[in-house]
Amino acid sequence: MDKILLHLASLQAIQERTIAETLVQGLRDAQPADVDYQTSNPYPDLIHIVGLSDRATQQLMSRAGRLRIPYVVTPLSSLQPWTHTRRPHFPPATILVASSQLEHEQLAKLYPQNTVHLVGNPVVSAAITFDDYARRMQEVYAEALASHDTAVRDDIAQHVGKLGEEDAAICDILRQALYVGYEHRRHHIQQTTLDRLAATMTAANYDEALMADRLEELQLTSSFAQLETFLADHSTLTEGFMPIEAHPNKNFTLP
User: Cβ–Cβ contacts within 10 Å for residue 49, how many?
Assistant: First the structure.
């Protein structure tokens, strides 16, 4: 189940605030049962931000950036040229949702590095129902999650690539271990991620001494030693397939 934090900015204009509040409530009511909107969740799978005018929203985006939580933004005209909202930077994987063709064109010019979707606002337009809006937003959420995950994996691959290691098995294990670390920081370690890493470490043929050196270079020795114990406790890894001595796990937990 996707854990989505729906965040409503404290918009200044009464009319804009009313429209935004109605949109948010309608979106909650129209969402399918497999979507879990939580009003307070420090580690959601995705954040949908509606409006951009207040400091709390800026702080939320900053925290999402630090934790690498993806977010979708519906500005609701808060980035129009005649507003005084400071135009924030969005990570390339962030999707912006315009409510009108004019806003779509303006956002595309302001943020050429981001994907901008046009999804009509059912509060002010009879051309789209709340059910259709919810369905379109589900598609946007899925795209945002996939795009974000690709970006994270690409960053990890680049980080490991700087080692210049030619052993494909070692590189694969390092990438997977770093991805577990990413999920750990998000408080969202998936069982499939653990099982894939345990299976790779069990089946791969690689130089364990060289692996230990690479872990040291990436400053992963301590966390990897704890991860080995976590994999033994929660997946299929056994002692004979651990490249370094395992340490008691103090960090990793399943959600």
Answer: 23
